[in-house]
Amino acid sequence: MALVSFNFSVPSVTISISSAFSPSSSVLRRRQCVRYPRTSFPSPLQFPLKISCAAASAVSTDSSPLAAKTEVKKDFLHINDFDKDTILNMLDRAIEVKALIKSGDRTFQPFKGKTLAMIFAKPSMRTRVSFETGFSLLGGHAIYLGPDDIQMGKREETRDVARVLSRYNDIIMARVFAHQDILDLAKYSTVPVVNGLTDYNHPCQIMADALTIIEHIGRLEGTKVVYVGDGNNIVHSWLLLAAVVPFHFICACPKGFEPDEKTVEKARQAGISKIEITNDPKEAVRGADVVYSDVWASMGQKEEAAYRRQVFKGFQVDRTLMEIAGSNAYFMHCLPAERGVEVTDEVIEAPNSIVFPQAENRLHAQNAIMLYVLGK
User: Which of 204, 251, 253, 334 is flagged as catalytic?
Assistant: First the structure.
């Protein structure tokens, strides 16, 4: 069978028709060319057009679109997958695009004609609204897929979800429980995958946090960031950032609630930052530039909430702890906060609390991340 290719140019139409016969046929291959004036075509084709149809082999060649070389796919799964310059360049881009959005200028539309699939195994107000609004502001369209829409790993295997969504969308963001799910999505997807959160890490949040620190302190490098509370996925992401960008990071947590040992060791072995894990929050916060807190019981741990409240006594960020940190210390929290539990209402509403600029920066940091992975 003959294969046909079409080429469009000016100013009239040439159609070449080939008839192919089997080798055993006594009739040789015949070729006919018929030339039509452009004006003989209906109005929808009122533009210069040249169509050339030529007989071709049924065997694929290097000129086939399927054989075209494709660029290496970029994912955003862990902060330490990137070097310092790449991370800082993304943060610079976030500042640049944030200023553009704040000015009211809507001419920058790099995501026009693109779609973002948002997978939510875990619900979240900030993650959904920041990704959906951010992608829309830059011209794209986001699709929300809630816990009951996919049931990834239950109703359908993760690898199948990845390959199907890749054919519909230009980029995938996923907020899931098991870290392996985000790794599998990235492995089988043919479009970029952004980690919106796993039980292991939360890289988008820490990029927003880094952006907020740069805006308020003027730099990230050389700062002292003290996290007070559970050694959870937020801590893991701070440790992975400390493996790339130099600063002093301390995690103050109760005994038995320390962060993952391998992640702590990875950050220390990088030799970039000073890393400390302690059980003394008062000593840890002295001279801090930032005191950071998070809920004591994350999603999926609520049955432990009462127990954790007992264990975490002494790790609440209150006015006394902030006074020990010093008058220049900022308070940060990734939200949602349980006021009166891990942080007092007085601290979260104080003038040196930057939790709401921090929340806003989720949108801007994530825009920069998506611009990077989409090559924009």
Answer: 334
